[in-house]
Write a structure and sequence with these properties.
This protein is mainly beta. The chain has 1 helix and 11 strands, in the order H-E-E-E-E-E-E-E-E-E-E-E. About 14% of the residues have low confidence.
């Protein structure tokens, strides 16, 4: 399944009335659960997404359980994603890094302006879904953080 198809699937499930969704293909598994926080004034719902690839599975098979709390950091705008401040510099974060809430994860260039992408959650970077220099869309998943 192509990346764009996965993003569209996540968007469709999030916009539906489904509380939980799981799909498994030859080389990946996607699990989503939406918890309704309608007790709050905003009426927003919180979505937990877990995506695993069979090529990344280790001897202890990657289990997707309710205890696994993964958050997706999405693009706040359309632009070009930059993993570091300078072209030859180290990226702000790497796979497996432990991060704090508010930490800078990358930048998105839009109309010659650089916009910081910051983490809303503390945890471990378990997936980086974009590459340096890649065009991103508003709401496109960029990082997966396991709390």
């Amino acid at each position: 399944m192509e990346f764009e198809q996965v993003v569209e699937l996540i968007r469709a499930v999030k916009e539906s009335d489904m509380a939980e969704f799981q799909i498994q293909d030859r080389d990946f598994q996607l699990w989503m659960k939406t918890s309704d926080d309608s007790k709050g004034k905003s009426g927003d719902s919180k979505t937990t997404v877990a995506l695993t690839s069979k090529t990344e599975e280790s001897t202890e098979k990657t289990g997707i359980t309710e205890e696994s709390r993964r958050q997706v950091v999405k693009s706040p705008l359309v632009g070009i994603f930059h993993a570091s401040a300078l072209q030859d510099a180290e990226p702000f974060v790497n796979l497996g890094d432990i991060i704090e809430s508010g930490q800078q994860l990358g930048m998105i260039e839009a109309m010659k302006l650089m916009n910081e992408v910051r983490a809303d959650y503390s945890g471990k970077i378990v997936d980086i879904l974009v590459q340096n220099g890649q065009q991103v869309q508003f709401g496109q998943p960029l990082f997966v953080i396991e709390e």
